[in-house]
Amino acid sequence: MTSTTPATVRRRRPRTRALRRALPFVLPFLALFVIVYLVPTIYAVVQSLFAVKRSGLGLGGAQVDFVWFGNYLRAFSDPGFVGSLGRVLLIGVIQVPLMLIVALALALLIDSRVSTGRRFFRLAYFVPYGLPGVIAALVWSFLYAPTLSPVVQAAGAIGIDLSFVSDGMIPFSIANILTWAWTGYNMILLYSALQAIPADIMEAAALDGCTGWRAALQIKVPLVRPALLMTLVFSIIGTAQLYNEPITMKSIAPNLPSDYTPIMAAMKWLSANDFNYAATLSVIVGAVVCILSVFVFRASAKRVD
Prior knowledge:
By secondary structure, this protein is mainly α. It has helices at 6-47, 70-76, 79-111, 118-130, 133-144, 150-157, 170-195, 199-207, 212-223, 225-240, 244-249, 262-271, 275-301; strands at residues 50-54, 62-66. It is built from 13 helices and two strands, in the order αββαααααααααααα. A two-stranded antiparallel sheet has the order 1-2. Strand 1 and strand 2 form a beta hairpin. Helix 3 runs antiparallel to helix 10 (225-240) and helix 10 packs antiparallel against helix 13. The model has no long low-confidence stretch (mean pLDDT 84).
């Protein structure tokens, strides 16, 4: 038998009091998390296990059947959905590393001791993020449109046949919009992490002769690794949810399919009243994002002895 000593009881009481005091502050977040995230996720998972079966060439009655993982097998055998996953993966491979490298470089430049006009450049880099995603996509669509783009017209004047909306260029065009819109946001996050580095560390590095880009790459970058990891995970999640940019570009790119991204594919089947299959695609996207996020965290947590 185990006995509880008075000292153990005294140690537990402050923890219980602290928990009770923190509970009113935590409950609103937990309530929103359950209502906004947990309940819809569970509902989508449940709906993905059912399918509507119609008889009589669609003219008869509809019956909802429990199909286990039939919708998931259908999704991974659907060329449109599998292709949308590949396209988003391609855009992410192109855009995410480039965006984070540029954001880190801008943050290091602003954080440099010799930099001037920090407030102006912080605001200038952040302004594109302040624009709604649809507005940014519309602005870039004007620059991409074959008949309106001054860039296309200038290239045509010197004999270059340039098209930003061809099948091969669309991923790069979308990646460019994302990089333009989100680099400033990630720069602010990384700059905040750089500002949190203790001044005595940089002073000690300067005394050892480690200054300039050498100090930035060997001292600052390793110290802001958690912020880099956070921006990487956010970027992965954002790329997986890609919707505004391609759906806006459809007006200038008729060759862009309606299931260009997984979210567009889910919306396509949702508009076709196939709610169960749309829920299945949404669950798959969420699972892929979770797997990639866990992989990034696990890979970054490995330390070299």
